[in-house]
Amino acid sequence: MTATDRALGAFYGLALGDALGMPTQSLSRRQIVVRFGHITTLEGAPADQPIAPNMVAGSVTDDTEQAILVGQLLVEGKGSIDPNQLAQRLISWESGMQAKGSQDLLGPSTKRAIEMILAGHSPEQSGRYGTTNGAAMRIAPVGIASDISHPEHFINTVIQACQVTHNTSLGIASAAAVAAVVSSGINGKKLEHALNAGTEMAFIAEHHGHWVAGGRMGPRIRWARQASTECNPDNLGDLLYDVIGTSVASQESVVAAFAIAQRVATANLSSFDALCMAASLGGDTDTIAAILGAMLGACAGLDQWPAELIEQITAVNSLQLEPLVHQLLALRNL
């Protein structure tokens, strides 16, 4: 399997997870059971979906769109991201979404950061309160473009992608953990090895950004992976929803994605079934599934995803990810 196969697997896995979780995002686990049972394929969103009303099956959300935005900035910056440029692109992105009448707007940490930027604060200051999963959800292109084998450059690029919105120990550690799994996968590492690299990177990266109170990413990921391994399959959903949590907090949703990935690595759970599980959990389902899809895709490649669903997502969203992925991989070798 080539690095291109793995990189496409990561980006399309992100989009697939995002689209699977689109109709269930912000719903409770019970609401999802009543409306959908268990997500097994791409579904459209009902009219009363709180964030994505009436979106057609296969539609992606801010997770994929902002990941593309970050990828484009990496290409334009030849492997670097200008935080001011990122802020301006996010402002433009939200304006475009508002013009379309979408409710899929900037998350709480990003929204606050952009308001600070518009008020004249520096990018270094604007992200000092960002602890949610917004940076982690859009970090996959950094994992594609930056090789974890060169850790200093890798971490610096992660920080550039986080600084303007999530310049905190939690925000940077969560994004770095996800990017490390993606980068390790593209280097040809198996999922278990890549998850170990992501866990270790969470410990390293937490020393950057503004310290904020909260459960540390590294210990929580390590604990959740162990708990997932030991959990009875019938109780895994309870562990994820009731104990780990599925909110927009990075210590919940990002950790939940790692816990599910651990089951793929150590138990008889397929990558696609794992995405369906994430999309059925309740809470921030689209982001959990998107992060999970990027990590699993990087380690097992594009062919693990159902071709007909990838084709549907590509058509519905007019995605053209191949050129971007090739450009990102070219940066990896600079």
UniProtKB/TrEMBL annotation:
- UniProtKB keywords: Hydrolase
SUPFAM superfamilies, sorted: ADP-ribosylglycohydrolase
Protein family membership: Belongs to the ADP-ribosylglycohydrolase family.
**Lineage of producing organism:** Bacteria, Pseudomonadati, Pseudomonadota, Gammaproteobacteria, Pseudomonadales
> What InterPro entries has UniProt attached to this entry?
ADP-ribosylglycohydrolase, Ribosyl_crysJ1, Ribosyl_crysJ1_sf
Q: State the Gene3D superfamilies in the record.
A: ADP-ribosylation/Crystallin J1
Q: Please state what the protein is called.
A: ADP-ribosylglycohydrolase
Which Pfam families would you find in this protein's record?
A: ADP_ribosyl_GH (PF03747)
